[in-house]
Amino acid sequence: MEDTQTLSPQESARQAMIAAGVSPDITVQADYFGFEETFRVMLPDGQSWIEHKSFNEGARRKYLNAANREVTVERTTGDARMKVASGDERYNLLTTAICNWNLVRAHKTTGIPEPITCSDTNIRTFLESANPRIVDIIEKDVRDKNPWLSAEVTVEGIDEQIAELQKLRDRKVAEQEGKAS
Question: Which residues, in sequence order, are CB contacts of 142 under 8 Å at separation 6+?
Fold first, then answer.
């Protein structure tokens, strides 16, 4: 028998099945219903976490419907303009994706941290009051685990975002130069 460290993972699994008396050649029809995959994002304190799901088709539809964009077509030029509220898009993405967490909140009178249940209301409250840097961490992971979200991005759209960021950078540099003088 070959050294198992030189075998591919598939061949190792195949040999393990044969050794266990299970035929690796029998196929089983896949269940395409009930796709569910969750991912945990650890937060900077190392104790708190948020779980989000990889969107199944139903969650994808819910998110896309919530992120409905208004399109205006100008008659004279035929140009289409899309009105996008990026804050609402992010909010809809996260309210659809977040499915569990381990978060606490200080009690109003005692100040003692108490666990907060993950519910639609509490998710909305969290997203309204959380530090944007923490929400950025969660959003990045949700987007990484749902690659279809970037499928709609065009090169022109990326170029527009780069131009907007360059303008923002120029303003910040001017502000800093103004403070230095």
Answer: 52, 93, 94, 97, 149
30 assigned to some structural domain: no
Of 25-29, 91-95, 164-168, give the range with the top mean pLDDT: 91-95
Based on the number of CB atoms within 10 Å of its own CB, is 108 exposed (0-12), middle (13-18) or buried (19 or more)?
exposed
Give the tens place of pLDDT for each residue, 122-176: 999 999 999 999 999 999 999 999 888 776 667 777 777 788 888 888 988 998 8
Residue pair 53/99 in contact (Cβ under 8 Å)? The answer is yes
Q: For tokens 């990484």, what's the residue?
A: 144
Whether 119 maps to a domain, the answer reads yes
Quick check: is 126 in a domain? yes
User: Which domain, by its residues, includes 136?
Assistant: 37-148
In a domain, residue 4? The reply is no
CB 150 within 8 A of CB 143: yes
31 contacts 23 by C-beta, under 8 angstroms: no
Q: Residue 168 is which amino acid?
A: L
pTM: 0.60
Number of domains in the chain: 1
